Amino acid sequence: MNKIEIPFRLPSLNQYINECRKNRYAGAKMKKNVDEDIGWYINSLPQYKNPIKIHFHWIEENKRRDFDNICFAKKFILDSMVKAGKLKDDNRNYVIGFEDSFEYAKESKVILEIEEVQNHE
């Protein structure tokens, strides 16, 4: 099992939608910037040859965002893992499950616990 921390608040679905509505390039620019920021932290992960399960532990600094808006950011994380070569793809052949948990603390962050599944059929 590998565990990493992304020590900052990731954009919510609502923030991403608002960027996409600004103009045709704003959403793509936001995604590119977030992917690059996440990339610094996922570089320490191994390259996964087998399917994985991920536990996303979302820590928020306040209760202003709904859970579904918070965990939308897993899209950014999984895309960054593929882009960095840590996963071949983020489809159901390579990501066979995930779980979300939430808590509140002084600073926002997300902790990933990644389990590689050896004999998955």
What is the approximate shape? globular
- Order of the strands making up the biggest sheet: 1-4-2-3
Mean pLDDT: 94
Number of domains: 1
Q: Enumerate the spans where pLDDT stays under 50 for 5 or more consecutive residues.
A: none
Number of strands: 4
CATH superfamily: Holliday junction resolvase RusA
Structural class: alpha+beta
Your description of this structure?
With about 120 residues, the chain is of the alpha+beta class. The protein has a single domain, classed as 60s Ribosomal Protein L30, Chain: A. About 35% of the residues lie in helices and about 25% in strands. It has four helices and four strands, in the order βααβααββ. It has helices at about 15-20, 25-40, 65-70, 75-85, and strands spanning about 1-5, 50-60, 95-105, 110-115. A four-stranded mixed β-sheet has the order 1-4-2-3. It starts with a strand and ends in a 5-residue tail after the last strand. The model has no long low-confidence stretch (mean pLDDT about 95).
List the helices and strands and how they pair.
Elements: E1 2-6, H1 13-22, H2 26-42, E2 52-60, H3 67-71, H4 74-83, E3 95-104, E4 109-116
Parallel strand pairs: 2-3
Antiparallel strand pairs: 1-4, 2-4
Helix pairs in contact: 1-2, 2-4
List keywords for this structure.
35% helix; single chain; 121 residues; globular; 60s Ribosomal Protein L30, Chain: A
